[in-house]
Amino acid sequence: MTVTPLRPRVATAARTSVEAAVELARTFAETAGDYDESAAFPHENIFRLHDAGLIALTAPVEFGGGGAGLGEASDVIREIARGEPSTALILIMQYINLATLPTGRWPEHLVCQVVADAVENGALINAFRVEPELGTPIRGGLPATTARRTGDGWSISGRKIYSTGAEGLSWAIVWARTDEDDPRVGGFLVPANAPGLRIEKTWNPLGMRATGSHDAVLEDVRVPLDHAVDIRLPSEWDTRGEGQAAWFGTLPGALYTGVAQAARDWLVRFLKERVPTNLGQPLATVPRIQQAVGEIEELIAVNLRLIASAARDVDEGRPFTLSEAGLIKVVTTENAIAAVEKALKLTGNHGISRHNPLERHHRDVLCGRIHSPQEDTVRLGAGRLALGI
Fold this sequence. Notes:
Elements: H1 17-38, H2 43-51, H3 70-83, H4 85-100, H5 108-121, E1 125-128, E2 146-149, E3 153-163, E4 171-178, E5 185-191, E6 197-200, E7 214-224, E8 230-232, H6 245-273, H7 287-315, H8 322-347, H9 349-352, H10 358-366, H11 375-387
Parallel strand pairs: 1-4, 2-4
Antiparallel strand pairs: 2-3, 3-7, 4-5, 5-8, 6-7
InterPro entries: Acyl-CoA_DH_C, Acyl-CoA_Oxase/DH_mid-dom, Acyl-CoA_Oxase/DH_mid-dom_sf, AcylCo_DH-like_C, AcylCoA_DH/ox_N, AcylCoA_DH/ox_N_sf, AcylCoA_DH/oxidase_NM_dom_sf, Mito_Isobutyryl-CoADH
Protein name: Acyl-CoA dehydrogenase
Domain Acyl-CoA dehydrogenase/oxidase N-terminal: 24-94
């Protein structure tokens, strides 16, 4: 497997992470259409994020990271998504892992190694969880991917699908079961260049085309014994693992809110510049249009407030429940989708033209429904909780 080498980080002038993200988003927006067209992995964007000090933003300060909480991470993700959302999704997975691994059950030396690689080299990490037969583990069931004990470690074989960022990762956390009589299940840390691990380029979706979420195939991939970084009996797992639920509930909403804001920004420019001959003035002057734009602003404003409030609670030590995390994800992504759909409705053929970015924003924002936790499981769980069932 070919791994693109990472460039050393370049020192930059002091600025806030959000200011850096805003500046980068403008640059990313210039090539977002190209990445959408080609579905190529955004290596250059990742290099620029590292140069700006944003790749290890959520890693603890004591490990050399930025020590950012969920609130700051949400703002950065939203701004990056306004420029190029596939890059933002790859960054979400990076932020969640770097923020939560140091507080989990991993051996400390492996946490230090992974975080140091991110800080110094811009190395990316994500989990390989979804399988062709199993789907997402959040819906239950044991993975077919199996880790077999060897004399000095583990041999892992299986296939993973929808592996976000796969072709750009340095580290993968492979969700697998052991071959024990009473199998344990959990994460095995695998270097992306390990012999026996290959990436098959199968990712060709409607939207979010540059995430590189290809298939990962493992054939007798050997890792040391301690790379079974967190394996437990199935009954000992919650659906996301300690500490990750709030991040998975909040950051996708931030990303797709950023997409909605990008759509809104294009729409506003279009309405100010479009002057139909029968009207003789910009569409922006029409009260009906103004009201419709106000509806879009309403949806975005609700998302911004909800995400900020949820993130602040987590950062101040008031974590919310798993059910609340799922509801926040569903509400914010559905609001973002509704906002972009309203923008599309106002623009007619202009909105669906491939010459304009609005149709791309629409395809991207629809992908918010795909990420776990999904609407049906979230609402079913919330309903059962309310009913005491």
